[in-house]
Request: fold
Amino acid sequence: MCIFLDDTDYRQFVHVLGDVVEGFAIRCWNYCLMPNHYHVTLQPSLPNFSEAIRRLNSVYAQWWNKRHDRVGHVFQGRFKDQVVDEDAYMLTLSRYVVMNPVRAGLATRPEDWPWGSYRATVGLSPVPAFLATTQTLRLFGEGSDTILQARFASFVTEPQHDSASYDRIRSKERILGPRAFKDLVATSVFAQVQD
Reply:
């Protein structure tokens, strides 16, 4: 089922996403809205992630049902979340998210798709207040915004050789990164449960 039927739907979701990111103190690295699903890379600062996603989905679903004179579920199933090691997987995840419309045949190039963060990240459109483009660009080292935007654009559009990383992103694996990172996250989660 499509969850975005026209530009108004896409715009409303971006608006709700911005409200949730700001209201729940979450950093949004990138996003991409597709006709029947969405991808977002989020970094929570508080233990409120599930509540934030529930809010995002429910506010949009209520608005969507009212607008389209429908009832029932708009989103199918629980959201998929993964803890991602910034050093090992964030670059690949950023490319994966913004290249979704190209892989799906909805756009020839990522900059042709208006419903994602790519255009803002590379400086082709204004940056929404909730989007932390600086975080993504810092993955490409030091330099001016223009240089970092060019590095990001080049990275996103270069031929991809790392299909194994894409497979891991698409997997049901909950923690992506090297063993030391996985152990650290597992220990941290265990410690939080014990408190």
Notes: Strands lie at 26-34, 37-44, 83-84, 175-176.
